[in-house]
């Protein structure tokens, strides 16, 4: 009797050790996915560091110049509507650095940020490679376009934040004064932080359809629930628009809110597609 208990205990210990080894194997695999992602980010960071003169003058400082694409399009829109006040002739942005190593750390940090943005698609691909073996064949097919759609939405969000939200915010904040006795001098860190936050936050918000797809697949969200909560979603979207845009004017908030409303409606469509697929699988199973 004691021999049987001993054999059973040895078998259970072996199973536990096998499970632990499997867990640590997964951790090791995840570590290598993260290492490769970090290497890709470092490569892009090095490229951004090497071409930093062009990146700083043309990309980072672009929204602070009247010749920026957005301002030129606004001027053309004003001419087409025969309205004055659309053209931006001057943006009073005066930048300063008050730290000894400020400009060097600025170049390092902004190059790292650009490296992370450029390396984001590769990071998604590594995440997909790590998750893919754990999925069933149908789940792999259903989520096969994850990297493509997530990257596309991220790029659209980045472009929207950079070409729409950022220039409107920079123009408003740089020109806003409460007294002619106060001169606006912005630290370079504050300027770059504002540009990076507005751009990256927009890229993150545009991942809403992907989030809806995941939650719908888990059974947490349904199209019926999203339709019934549309009125609350409108309030939340307006709050998000107010947080993303530091400018209090209604025009900027409206411009930011419209794509978010569209993304919410797209999310309802995505949730509906997921629900139909679930029903089809259930019917096929019966």
UniProtKB/TrEMBL annotation:
Membrane topology note: Multi-pass membrane protein
Alphabetical keyword list: Cell membrane, Membrane, Protein transport, Translocation, Transmembrane, Transmembrane helix, Transport
Source organism superkingdom: Bacteria
GO biological process terms, semicolon-separated: intracellular protein transmembrane transport; protein transport by the Tat complex
GO cellular component, as recorded: TAT protein transport complex
Predominant place of localization: membrane
PANTHER family (alphabetical): SEC-INDEPENDENT PROTEIN TRANSLOCASE PROTEIN TATC, SEC-INDEPENDENT PROTEIN TRANSLOCASE PROTEIN TATC, CHLOROPLASTIC-RELATED
Name recorded for this polypeptide: Sec-independent protein translocase protein TatC
Species the sequence originates in: Mucilaginibacter achroorhodeus
